[in-house]
Write a structure and sequence with these properties.
Blueprint lengths: L9 E9 L14 E9 L15 H6 L4 E6 L5 H11 L2 H4 L2 E9 L7 H11 L3 E6 L24 E6 L4 E2 L5 H4 L4 E6 L2 H6 L2 E4 L1 E2 L2 H11 L1 H10 L3 E5 L1 H6 L2 E4 L2 E4 L6 E4 L5 E9 L13 E8 L2 E4 L7 E5 L4 E4 L1 E3 L2 E4 L8 H15 L11 H19 L2 H7 L2
Parallel strand pairs: 3-4, 4-5, 6-8, 6-9, 9-11, 11-21, 12-14
Antiparallel strand pairs: 1-2, 1-3, 7-10, 12-13, 14-17, 15-16, 15-18, 18-19, 20-21
């Protein structure tokens, strides 16, 4: 099991044995997963947040795992980063750190040797390797990447992803960025939403907070107006919840955008599962989407109930064999809890054909590379660099 992160300022890398309650990427059936690599964006020594910490050193303690500390030299001051972080940790936390990785180095590694020797002596922790700055196309940490501030492509089909303050899982839309028919931007500008043929409300780490932000900025009115004028609107996870009629948390009910006939109630139990399924039999302009295979994952709080007349978007089967209907369709407005929706080549292609037809844009067919094969190739490049530049024998000893 692998999860990599190379664009963070500081990464906490833990190796250990975990259960489903600790990681959403575990087996999902309650079984133990051995020798799992967990890489987290880690402000490792956030002493002001330590009491509530469950994702950084708190995670390492939870699973009783050794830790590798990875520092980003590209930002400068790498040895100060390392020393300051180690010194701010509690003694028992320092004992967990079994090695240090220097990440994103450009140049001759020999030039680092004096600094490496000094930091090892100061911290009493070995540097297990120096990773070079790599040009690899892999998923990046939510909202921290430069790509979220860029416009992608110059295609005729304009897609606008609302850049929510607490946006999450925005990499769901990376496959769309690569399509030649698409021009995609992450935006908070009303004029860009008004020009878009497709508007996407992404996932959120704070659905109610981001819904209130939409209303406070007036973007909710813009989205409703664009939907009324014919723009395709998609909500994924938290975005799906916002498109519904209401969201209820404990005794408080908040009105959504009322674009989908669904009501959401937040529950204490978090849904975390891999799923696969198919788009349900849709009518009218959506017929071409019917029956297309889907695969991805769910990770959310809350359950959304459709109104009696509402049409679900898809039927899904989770990794434990449980089946259910998911999402909602209302005209050209879609909602779903499924992350990774656009990773499926067939669904992505047919959806873009539908969106182009709906917007009156001629579709231009073209040969495409297999996205899954391309992603695997990029991770293989990273894996090779890790094996070539880190002391893997020392790292494997940590797992024993």
């Amino acid at each position: 099991m692998r999860e990599y992160l190379i664009n963070s300022q500081f990464a906490l890398v833990t190796y250990g044995t975990v259960t489903e309650t600790c990681l959403p990427y575990s087996s999902g059936d309650g079984k133990i997963v051995d020798d799992c690599l967990n890489v987290k964006m880690a402000k490792t020594a956030e002493i002001n947040l330590k009491q509530e910490d469950i994702v950084n050193m708190g995670m390492a303690e939870m699973v009783d795992a050794p830790v590798l500390l990875a520092a980003d030299i590209d930002r400068g001051g790498v040895f100060a980063q390392i020393y300051g972080t180690v010194m701010l940790l509690e003694p028992h936390e320092r004992e967990r750190i079994k090695g240090i990785i220097i990440n994103k180095f450009r140049g001759d590694v020999a030039l680092l040797k004096p600094g490496i020797e000094q930091i090892e002596a100061l911290c009493g922790i070995p540097v297990v390797g120096v990773l070079p700055y790599l040009k690899v196309d892999i998923d990046e940490e939510d909202s921290l990447s430069e790509r979220i501030g860029m416009r992608h492509g110059e295609g005729a089909l304009k897609i606008a992803v609302v850049r929510l303050p607490h946006i999450s899982n925005y990499t769901d839309f990376a496959p769309l960025e690569e399509e030649s028919m698409v021009s995609l931007c992450y935006t908070v500008k009303k004029e860009e939403l008004q020009k878009a043929n497709v508007i996407i409300l992404p996932g959120s780490k704070n659905t109610l907070g981001d819904l209130q932000w939409l209303k406070g900025t007036g973007l909710d009115i813009v989205i409703r107006r664009c939907a009324k004028e014919g723009a395709v609107v998609i909500g994924v996870c938290g975005g799906y919840q916002m498109l519904g009629e209401t969201i209820t948390e404990e005794q408080t009910m908040v009105r959504g955008l009322s674009l989908l006939p669904a009501d959401t109630v937040f529950a204490e139990q978090k849904v975390r599962t891999r799923v696969q399924g198919r788009v349900t039999a849709l009518n009218g302009d959506h017929t071409s989407l019917s029956g297309l295979e889907l695969e991805g994952y769910e990770i959310h709080m809350g359950v959304s109930r459709l109104h009696p007349e509402a049409q679900p978007f898809c039927s899904l089967t989770d990794q434990n064999g449980g089946s259910k209907e998911d999402g909602c369709v209302n005209g050209q407005i879609f909602g779903t809890y499924l992350h990774g929706l656009f990773d499926a080549d067939a669904f992505r292609t047919v959806f873009l054909q539908f969106a182009c037809k709906h917007a009156g844009i001629p579709w231009r067919a073209e040969a495409r590379a297999d996205r899954n094969a391309y992603r695997q190739q990029q991770y293989d490049i990273l894996e090779q660099a890790i094996r070539e530049n880190l002391d893997m024998e020392a790292i494997y000893k940590m797992l024993r």
